[in-house]
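Field reference: sequence -> structure
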Amino acid sequence: QVQLVESGGGLVQPGGSLRLSCAASGIIFSLNAMGWYRQAPGKLRELVARITLGGSTNYADSVKGRFTISRDNAKNTVYLQMNSLRPEDTAVYYCHALLNGGTGFWGQGTQVSVSS
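Structure field:
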Protein backbone atom coordinates (compact mmCIF):
# COMPACT_ATOMS: atom_id res chain seq x y z
CA GLN A 1 0.00 0.00 0.00
CA VAL A 2 0.98 3.58 -0.67
CA GLN A 3 -0.46 6.55 1.18
CA LEU A 4 -0.50 9.92 -0.55
CA VAL A 5 -1.05 13.17 1.34
CA GLU A 6 -1.67 16.27 -0.73
CA SER A 7 -1.45 19.89 0.33
CA GLY A 8 -1.28 23.37 -1.15
CA GLY A 9 -4.68 23.91 -2.74
CA GLY A 10 -6.78 27.00 -2.20
CA LEU A 11 -8.40 30.03 -3.75
CA VAL A 12 -6.34 32.29 -5.99
CA GLN A 13 -7.07 35.13 -8.40
CA PRO A 14 -6.54 34.68 -12.15
CA GLY A 15 -2.88 35.08 -12.98
CA GLY A 16 -1.82 33.91 -9.55
CA SER A 17 0.24 30.93 -8.48
CA LEU A 18 -0.10 27.91 -6.24
CA ARG A 19 2.20 25.04 -5.37
CA LEU A 20 0.80 21.59 -4.67
CA SER A 21 2.72 18.95 -2.75
CA CYS A 22 2.14 15.23 -2.47
CA ALA A 23 4.06 13.13 0.04
CA ALA A 24 4.12 9.36 -0.40
CA SER A 25 4.60 6.75 2.31
CA GLY A 26 4.26 2.99 2.47
CA ILE A 27 5.71 0.70 -0.22
CA ILE A 28 7.72 3.57 -1.63
CA PHE A 29 10.70 1.52 -2.76
CA SER A 30 8.73 0.36 -5.79
CA LEU A 31 7.40 3.78 -6.75
CA ASN A 32 7.72 4.54 -10.43
CA ALA A 33 5.84 7.41 -11.99
CA MET A 34 3.96 10.03 -10.00
CA GLY A 35 1.58 12.57 -11.34
CA TRP A 36 -1.22 15.03 -10.91
CA TYR A 37 -4.71 14.70 -12.34
CA ARG A 38 -7.66 17.03 -12.00
CA GLN A 39 -11.40 16.78 -12.19
CA ALA A 40 -13.70 19.73 -12.70
CA PRO A 41 -17.44 19.51 -11.95
CA GLY A 42 -19.23 17.55 -14.65
CA LYS A 43 -16.01 16.56 -16.38
CA LEU A 44 -13.84 13.47 -16.51
CA ARG A 45 -10.63 13.24 -14.53
CA GLU A 46 -7.72 14.25 -16.74
CA LEU A 47 -3.95 14.05 -16.58
CA VAL A 48 -2.27 17.35 -15.75
CA ALA A 49 1.38 16.34 -15.45
CA ARG A 50 3.43 13.22 -14.84
CA ILE A 51 7.02 12.53 -13.87
CA THR A 52 8.91 9.24 -13.90
CA LEU A 53 11.51 8.07 -11.41
CA GLY A 54 14.16 9.11 -13.90
CA GLY A 55 12.74 12.60 -14.19
CA SER A 56 11.01 12.42 -17.57
CA THR A 57 7.92 14.61 -17.67
CA ASN A 58 4.83 15.07 -19.76
CA TYR A 59 2.08 17.68 -19.52
CA ALA A 60 -1.41 18.28 -20.74
CA ASP A 61 -1.37 20.78 -23.60
CA SER A 62 -3.55 23.16 -21.61
CA VAL A 63 -0.92 23.61 -18.89
CA LYS A 64 2.32 23.53 -20.87
CA GLY A 65 4.45 26.57 -20.13
CA ARG A 66 2.44 27.40 -16.99
CA PHE A 67 2.77 24.35 -14.76
CA THR A 68 5.92 22.54 -13.68
CA ILE A 69 6.06 19.13 -12.06
CA SER A 70 9.07 18.13 -9.99
CA ARG A 71 10.04 15.32 -7.69
CA ASP A 72 12.23 14.92 -4.63
CA ASN A 73 13.02 11.22 -4.51
CA ALA A 74 14.75 11.53 -1.14
CA LYS A 75 11.53 12.89 0.37
CA ASN A 76 9.20 10.76 -1.78
CA THR A 77 7.40 13.96 -2.65
CA VAL A 78 6.11 15.34 -5.92
CA TYR A 79 5.29 19.00 -6.49
CA LEU A 80 3.19 20.89 -8.99
CA GLN A 81 4.06 24.56 -9.41
CA MET A 82 1.13 26.28 -11.07
CA ASN A 83 1.64 29.77 -12.50
CA SER A 84 -0.57 32.06 -14.56
CA LEU A 85 -3.65 30.28 -13.25
CA ARG A 86 -6.89 30.61 -15.15
CA PRO A 87 -10.51 30.10 -14.10
CA GLU A 88 -10.59 26.95 -16.23
CA ASP A 89 -7.89 25.45 -13.99
CA THR A 90 -10.46 25.25 -11.21
CA ALA A 91 -10.82 21.60 -10.19
CA VAL A 92 -10.03 19.04 -7.55
CA TYR A 93 -6.42 18.01 -8.07
CA TYR A 94 -5.44 14.43 -7.28
CA CYS A 95 -1.99 12.99 -6.77
CA HIS A 96 -1.34 9.59 -8.35
CA ALA A 97 1.45 7.11 -7.74
CA LEU A 98 2.26 4.16 -9.94
CA LEU A 99 4.21 1.20 -8.61
CA ASN A 100 6.60 -0.82 -10.75
CA GLY A 101 4.11 -3.70 -10.86
CA GLY A 102 1.46 -1.47 -12.39
CA THR A 103 -0.69 -0.82 -9.32
CA GLY A 104 -1.80 2.78 -8.90
CA PHE A 105 -2.84 4.78 -5.85
CA TRP A 106 -4.73 8.05 -5.48
CA GLY A 107 -4.57 10.83 -2.96
CA GLN A 108 -7.69 12.30 -1.41
CA GLY A 109 -7.66 15.38 -3.63
CA THR A 110 -7.16 19.07 -2.98
CA GLN A 111 -9.40 21.86 -4.27
CA VAL A 112 -7.93 24.55 -6.49
CA SER A 113 -10.22 27.48 -7.23
CA VAL A 114 -9.27 30.32 -9.55
CA SER A 115 -11.63 33.27 -9.32
CA SER A 116 -11.64 37.02 -8.95
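Note: The chain has a mean pLDDT of 94.
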